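User: tokens in, sequence out, please.
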């Protein structure tokens, strides 16, 4: 990630349809909740879901694991935001 860019600059590029993946570490996504401790989990998913994940991961050139991490982090963030609005 180029440190000379601000989040607002990246947001503007994204909003303009520009590719902003270079600014993110998609192979090692993190969720900022203090000290990060990685834990391994096993998931049992239907075949169609694995195929869909692999297709999407291939489209944006990241691993299936990275895609799942990014999607889960986004969902958790959305849930946190929704929870703050309700309470």
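Assistant: Sequence out:
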């Amino acid at each position: 990630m180029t440190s000379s860019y601000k989040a607002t600059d990246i947001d503007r590029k994204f909003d303009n349809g520009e590719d902003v993946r270079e600014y993110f570490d998609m192979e090692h996504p993190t969720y900022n909740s203090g000290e990060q401790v990685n834990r391994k989990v096993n998931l049992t998913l239907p075949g169609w879901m694995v195929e869909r994940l692999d297709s999407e991961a291939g489209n944006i050139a990241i691993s299936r694991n990275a895609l799942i991490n990014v999607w889960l982090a986004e969902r958790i963030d959305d849930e946190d935001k929704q929870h703050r609005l309700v309470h």
